[in-house]
Amino acid sequence: MRFLTMIKTAENDPMGPPPPSLTVAIAELGHRATTDGTLLEQGGLLPSTSGALVTMADGRVTVAEGPFAEGQLVVAGYAMFQLRSRDEAIELARRFMAVHAAHWPGAVAACEVRRLAD
Description:
This protein has helices spanning 20-35, 86-103, and strands spanning 2-10, 39-44, 52-57, 60-65, 73-82, 109-115.
């Protein structure tokens, strides 16, 4: 089963940008997952100022340029895994968030776990 995990953070976090130690710890997690064959792809996203939100409501399509709402958590990065179960995907996300807590205490983040429709 393939799972997509999406890390969500506030773009203008009052704590500032993530510390370099977090980047190193995330790279180590990625290296281990690549080595064991579970990580299929990962990447970070540029700030929402470089993006757009295309919505449809009442039969009309509208485009809103970034940045998006202040204080809103936005997707900052993603990883796609090949795993045996949903529980395994949740455990990986839990470990990923624990690394954030250890290296960036006080920051607010969320990791959404979604199975791909195969």
